[in-house]
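Trying the structure run again after the queue cleared.
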Amino acid sequence: MKNPARMKNKGYSIEGVPLLDLKSQYRSIKSEIDQAIAEVCESQHFIMGPVVQRFEKQIENYCGCKNAIGVSSGSDALLIALMALEITAGHEVITTPFTFFATGGAIARVGATPAFCDIDPDTYNLDPKSVENYIEKNCDIKDGKLINRHTGNEVKAIMPVHLFGQATHMEEIMRIAAKFDLHVVEDAAQAIGAKTKEGKTAGTIGDIGCYSFFPSKNLGAFGDGGMVVTNNDELAERLRILRVHGGKPKYYHAFIGGNFRLDALQAAVLEVKLKHLDEWTKARQKNAQKYNELLSSIKTIKTPTEISGTHHIYNQYTIAAVDHSLDRNHIREQLTENNIGVEVYYPVPLHLQECFNYLGHARGDIPVAERAAKDVFSIPIHPELSDDEIGYVVDVLSTIVEVSDS
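Done. C-alpha cells:
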C-alpha cells in the first residue's frame, strides 16, 4: 500500500507523522527551559534541594493532594510505594496484566506475588468485577486477614493502573479495598491530571499514587523522573526517608530504603512544562475528538472508549482492530512504511511473560487482556499534530484496512 504520492493527490504534502514530537515541544518553550536549566547549573545544586521542593508543592496544588515526594522514576515510585506499605514476601497484590512491566515488576521486586485479574474490554483498565471474582474464588478471611487459600499468602493491596490517560473505576476499587481492608496503590504513570467521573484526580484516591515523568509522558522530563503522592502524612514521612536510603538524620538508618531521589535539573524542566500541561492536554483531547469523528465510518476499527464525565488526558490514542481477520502486525508495518509513528502497548500481557512462569498461568486464563494484547495499537496524539497530519494518518489507515479487508 506504500504510496505517499497518492495521499499528496488528496491535498497532503506530508512526509510523515511521528508518534511523538518532543523537538517541536522543546522549540516552543526553549527559552523557558534553557533559563531554568541555567539557573540550576549556576546554583550547582543538582540533587534534591529547593527546586525539587518547589516542584513538589506545585504538584500538590495541581493534583489536589497533601504530600508530593519527588523520586527517580515512575518505576521507582511504584517500588517505594510498596516498600512504604511494608508489602513483602508472603503478600499478594492484585493488579492488571495489561500494563507496562514496571507494574508487576515492582510487586515481584519487593518479594510479593502479583495476582493478575482481567480488564474492562472497553477502557482496558482493571475490571472491579474480575477483582471481586478473584477474591471470591480464591480467598478466605482468617483472623481479619484476606488469605489466598491456595498459596497461604495474605492479599495486602490492589494496584489499579490508569491506562492510556483515563482514570479507572476507582469508586468500585476503593469499595472492594475497604471491604477487605486492603491498601490501594495507584499506578498513574500515564495519567497525571486525569479525573474520575466523581471529579477526583487519578493518583490521589488510594493510599499512594505514582506518576512517571519519562520523556514520552504528557508531563515528561529530560530523562527519568517520578513522583509519589499521598494524603497520609505518616506515609509521606516514610516515603521521604525511604528515598534517601532510609536515613534520618543523615547516616542514621532505622530501616532500609534506596537511592530514589529526583534530580534538580529534572525538576526544573518539569516545573516549566507543568505551566503548559493543561494547554497540551486540551490539544490532545481536541486531536482525539478529530480522530473519533474521522474514524467513525471504519467499522473494523474501535476508537477509545471515554467514560462519561471523566477527564481523559490521552497519554496515548489507542485503537483496536476488532475485525479479527485484520492482521494488526500488517497494519503496523504499513503505517510505518508510510512514515506514521505507531506503537503496540502491550503485545504480551504480564501473566504470559516468561519471568512470571512461576505463577502457573496458561494462555486463555485472562482472556480480555489477551485479546487486547492482540488487537490494540496506538497512533500519534501529541499536542503538536496538525489537522492535515491527522487527516493523513486516517486516510492511510483507511486504505490499509480497506485493502486488508478486501
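The chain has 14 helices and twelve strands. Worth checking whether this holds up in the mutant runs.
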